[in-house]
Amino acid sequence: MMRKSLQILLALFVLALLAVAAVYLLRPGHMPNQKKAPRSGETSASTQLITKGEYLARAGDCVACHTVPNGPIFAGGRAMATPFGNLYVPNITPDDDTGIGLWTPDEFYRMMHTGVSRDGTLLYPAMPFASYTQVTRADSDAIFAYLMSVTPVRQTNRAHELRFPFNNRELLIGWRTLYFKQGEFQPDPAQSAEWNRGAYLVRGLGHCAMCHTAVNALGGSSESKAFEGGMIPNQNWYAPSLTSNREAGLGDWKISEISDLLQVGVSHRGTVYGPMAEVVYNSLQYMTDEDTKAMAVYLKALPQKDDAPPPTSQARLVDPAVMETGRKVYVAQCAMCHGAEGKGQPPSFPILAGNRSITMVTPVNPIRMVLNGGYPPGTYKNPRPHGMPPFSHILNDDEVAAVVTYIRVAWGNSGTPVNAAQVSDLRKLLPE
Q1: What pLDDT score was predicted for residue 432?
Q2: Which of 160, 341, 349, 354 has its CA 20 to 30 A from that of 152?
Q3: Which pLDDT score, from 0 to 100, does residue 366 have?
Q4: 370: which DSSP letter?
């Protein structure tokens, strides 16, 4: 623990030096005042442009962060917990005083492209500008036209609550130097138009790598490890690797199976829960068949980085008493939907035998599913999804550990055992 703390302090020191060295060279200034952008009723933007912008804002999942549940759309105020404290998402309605009503398309594009606000303020990377930088100017203008068409909401932005030294925005210059690569998406001429469209959506507006790439102690990630999976900070869900067939690698999935999972939330190969269910609900269900297929084409083409065969079943390592407890719990609570042999009833009830989301290195997701339960999102193509009830009030920590262990090692599954302490840690996250 001491060694890790020293490493973090050293990294912060390096960032501070970078910030001091770069502050006068790199700090952007206030954009010059320009003519105020027109409002919805007087806008010169075409209906088609606004419609395009609404679609692209859906693709970027802007509503997920900029709208408080049951609150006015895009009015901000939502708390975003981070390892460094709470960030409060700003109002992006066209209100002159508290929103972006006085912004211009140039200023909006600069914010998307560079992560710099209208007044020259450096944005914290919780705003996914490291991905949005790839958005084209035309698409940025369309999103801006749409945002300027929504109902203005007067709601003052709340100040962030970050611990020292993370409340010092000058340190962001160092972070940007290390982790931010600015530049619009450039199509790969060696790839198809469909692949390039998928790459643009996945890497840009979809900002998929933000969750599916491990984040270090400074909130940065390595481009070389993109899509290799990682824990989502402060959410305590694991976003699986998309480049490993031992996790959620898609190398042996059909394009239709990937597309269905993205757009519908369920497929014959899997079901989305947790944070990904929110992404499908808020964003991906609204995408066209062509766009989700393009994303699937790109994702399937990601290079798979583990050629070695998966490990054999770890059942022999499990205490027979634990295995028997897990089997009894499974028969009593799970077999009705998932089958006695874990074959499920896809797409309504996922297969557990051979399901890599069950056997990943970290067991956090199956533990949370048993404790929390959950539903895949209700979507246009699956409006009445089948859900899983929570078992936190029925099963104790030992029973949850036993049943999760059982499904991770039964039927030839190659997962590892789970202990009660791991369950207890995640039970503490349950709402009271």
Answers
A1: 67
A2: 160
A3: 94
A4: H
